[in-house]
Amino acid sequence: MAPLPISRDERSAAFFDAAAQGTLLLRWSPATGAYLPPTAHIDPSAPLSPLEWRPVAGTGEIVTWTVLPPGGDVVALVELAEGPWLTVAVRGVAPTALHEGYQVRIGFERPEGGEAVPVALPR
Amino acid sequence: MTGELSGRAAIAGLGITEMGKVYGRSAAEFAVEAVTLAAADAGLDLADIDGLLINPGVGGDIGLPLHTALGLRELRLLTEMQGFGSSADGMVQYAALAVHAGMADVVVCVYADAPLREDRGAGATYTGAGRRATGVDALPAAAGLRSAPAKYALAARRHMERYGTTSEQLGAVALAARQWAALNDRAQMKDRPLTLEDHQSSRMVADPLRLYDCCLVSNGGIAVVVTSAERARALRRPPVYVLGWGQGHPGYPMSRGSTFGLVTGAAISGPAALKMAGLTLADVDVREIYDCFTYTTLVTLEDYGFCAKGEGGEFVASGAIAPGGSHPTNTGGGQLSSYYMWGMTPLSEGVIQARGDGGVRQAPKADVVLVSGNGGVLDHHATLLLSPHAAT
């Protein structure tokens, strides 16, 4: 199943610009050096310090997953090496091979009529 | 030491409409009937009600206009409240506070919903369809994570991976609920026995959750009357005292260290409620736990401490929670097998048990009944400790 087409808003423009180039951006807190999920509004440890976008390597591991009928699509929570979690479709892995800690890398798909979105691929 | 407000408020009335595949009536109509039934149960006139708390669900089909639909005049307290599946227990807590503060004397808390239609299946409800996918907040939906079962499947799978919990153990929760439902005339699945083979062969909804791991969908409404312990003692039915309460909202970070799927807010709300009531876990006779999925019952039992973390699977498979077991749980059949009215499902059965009105399913001892609500995807939790006895 192709990802649901998704449209950008002002807050997500940088994220989707980078995704179109095959680069994953996370939020980054200059005050603490912490990486945060793309959805983060603040760094709770430094709430008054503005966040920046930073490119990351896009490696991570499976935290948990579900397999959805009828097509057997796999959706997983992936913990990136930098710490944040992403919810992504998993491609190219048999569901029976998955386990907590399964190593993945982030790639991108661009469904027709939507922005490029991250997916997990076997590393 | 017992909290100052322990036992100072009581549930004095319970109203439950016809429930399940009841068509042709709106949520507002169910809500009006539930409030009317609850007041009558307490031996009160509608005019005695001076506070109304409304949980509008997710459909938004009921809300503030309910007070005019009921003809309630000059209310002193009226608002909509939202904690998703924890709303029912939360409303009782705020009602008790309002009564103590003198804002109102008789507060009715109500929930009603009518998602089922004759022309479509239960699976077509609560889909969130039509929501627009915009920005990074929509990434999960874009990836395919669009239904409640899919989201809870992520939580359940994590628990299974970490602790070795099995689908058969989830099935034990479904079977226990169905066995209790067989004893409950209000249960939608009263006459539908379930075997472990049925559970294991039922269709996958969102792996690892099968059809019989998922709760029902119901049309109906439920309301309770909350008032002071003193006033409740003068009313028609024996008071159900609210001995303790608590809430827990984990605020799971989407990052390393999150306990999503492993620990719920019950680990916060449970100890808070017990402390307020001056009770320990061993004092709890009956558990009414929000069971939107079999996994939810299992993990919540762990978080209250009825078994050790990670041992919920073995605990439920031992028969502990089924009729005749050591830990009677979801004695009406729960949301899995009786009716799905958000947090009003466990709350209504908790009141029934504390009153001793359970009939053939009445637990052998119901001096302390723990009622547990869960909302969102394990995001919101609330606990009540109910008793037929006033705090001492």
From TrEMBL, chain A:
Residues 53-108 form the ChsH2 C-terminal OB-fold domain. It comes from the Bacteria. Pfam families: OB_ChsH2_C. This is ChsH2 C-terminal OB-fold domain-containing protein. It comes from Streptomyces spongiae. The lineage of its organism: Bacteria, Bacillati, Actinomycetota, Actinomycetes, Kitasatosporales.
